[in-house]
Amino acid sequence: MAEKKTVSVTESTRKRKTTTTAGGSNMPAAKATGSATPKRIGAVILWILAIACEVLAILMVGNKLIFNLKYHLYFIIGAIVLDLIFVVAGSLLWKSANLIDPASEKNKVKFWLWNNMGMLVAAAAFLPLIIITLTSKEADKKTKTAVGIIGAIALAIALLFGHDWNPLSAEEKAAMEGTFSDSSLPEGDVYITSTGTKFHLYEDCQHIKDRSKFSCKDAAAEEKKNIVDIAIEHGCTEVCKTCEAKFQKETGTTPAPETKDAE
Fold this sequence. Notes:
By secondary structure, this protein is mostly helical. The protein contains 9 helices and 4 strands.
């Protein structure tokens, strides 16, 4: 008879190992709930617009394109601002898509690329502009100073939004889905807050007891998704440790042993 094992989400995400469910079977691979493709396409379109704004700013810096000589510098700054808006919006869309369909850690190149795409685009959208402006013979000192400073600030902001501070992998998503299936949840639901990054298994959890909460059950039924998937797609990629401890105490579960992947 196969030894029954259950998994702690905290342990799974920390150790990043393939774990097993009750009965010893391997966790299923994470599947995309909904489609990440429209969001990825939207992000790419926004990033293309950002690069177009950068090209426009470069042309204006080199005086190859002048809309109004009196307000020439303001047009350049406007192009930089639009560039930033498009880069940040694209990065947010891309990260949202990564929560729906995260890359697997088994493919290290894709995993790194998928979770750093926003930063790469940010660099491409501002570094050439800054370098060309500072080395331009056509741009005057005032233009170089303004574009250099504003471009550097825009680059920093874009990198900040483009960086994924807590990237989710396909394996981590599968572990969470497998550990806390809809049928095993203590209240048949999970709860999240508008600003939190963790999902809660109990509505009366001390960390959200007096806060405005969002129940994922109705949204999951409407969108035909796993309840935990709904929490993940709202940016909650970890279970509350207090809720997990209570869940383990009630169900008698223990973290998976620190062994190699199950056969």
